[in-house]
Amino acid sequence: MQMRFLPSIITALTALTLTSCSTITAEQYEATALTSYTWQVKYANNLTSEPRPRIETFATTSMLNRNGVKPLGAVVGPDDRGLWWPTLPPRPNVDEVEQRKRPQEEVGKPELIKDIKYKLTYGVGNTQNTLPTNYDVYRQVVKAYPQKIPLELTLGVNDNSVEKAEPVSK
Predict the structure, then answer these.
(1) For a tag site, which of 7, 124, 132, 155 has the least CB within 10 Å?
(2) Which of 10-24, 91-105, 132-146, 153-167 has the lowest mean pLDDT?
């Protein structure tokens, strides 16, 4: 009875092998971290029992960090991860919050959400690619960038992200 699953398992393993990670060496690269603050408010008929309340977004501010260098106009930071943050956006007032309320809904308190989106742009030949990445890759670039040390980049599944960056030892 278990033999009928074997073709499925072989197909899945073949697909995994075909979409495995690849490694490239990049001499041109730039890492960015987009830091942002966003005010949001939850709305629901019952905030305590509603599994997915409606979320309304209010004001947002953001700042683009590039290779660990202090961005122009930065006033908050660097934090314990070396990132600079924008100034806080204006908190929504009670009138703005109530204006978006629907009949029968309860309104949550405004929450300030912090978010970071990391990206790495690298060049191979005449082609430039920009992919999402993570904090560890961002930090490797910050350390390698001033000396222009080549990096070995490990790309994620289907080459849709950069999972790892290591200095190339000569």
Answers:
(1) 7
(2) 10-24
Nearest by Cα to 164 from 23, 18, 33, 26? 23
What is the per-residue pLDDT across 28-51, written as a single tens digit (0 to 9) for each? 999 999 999 999 999 999 999 999
Separation CA 141–CA 86 (nearest Å): 22
Instruction: Output the CA–CA distances (angstroms, integers) from residue 102 to 43, 110, 143, in the order listed.
Output: 8, 16, 50
Query: Is residue 104 a contact partner of residue 47, using CB atoms and an 8 Å limit?
Result: no
Q: Is 11 helix (H, G, I), strand (E, B) or coil?
A: helix
Rg (C-alpha) for the chain, rounded Å, is 22
Residue 83 to residues 63, 75, 146: CA-CA distances in angstroms?
A: 10, 11, 17
Please state, rounded to an integer, the average pLDDT across all residues of the chain.
Answer: 90
How far is Cα 68 from Cα 82, in angstroms, rounded to an integer?
7
Matching residue, tokens 């683009």: 64
